[in-house]
UniProtKB/TrEMBL annotation:
<protein>
    <submittedName>
        <fullName>Uncharacterized protein</fullName>
    </submittedName>
</protein>
Length: 68
């Protein structure tokens, strides 16, 4: 079993804190802000790929480890 986050077709990347969320049109077009800092998301191809890389190298959080 892999501890890495589930991959989707695309991601959005917060332009302020680099938080990653799955792609939605609302997030990409600025109608939904980052839940961590309130910043704007970008879902262009470059940001989506950067977000995908960030998730691949992300260490599991304490919450994920406690659930195992």
């Amino acid at each position: 079993m892999s501890a890495s986050p589930e991959q989707t077709d695309g991601y959005v990347l917060c332009q302020d804190c680099s938080h990653v969320e799955p792609y939605t049109s609302e997030r990409h077009h600025g109608r939904e802000n980052c839940p961590k800092c309130g910043g704007s998301f970008c879902g262009c191809n470059a940001c989506s790929e950067l977000a995908r890389l960030a998730l691949q190298f992300q260490e599991p959080s304490d919450e994920q480890e406690a659930g195992e």
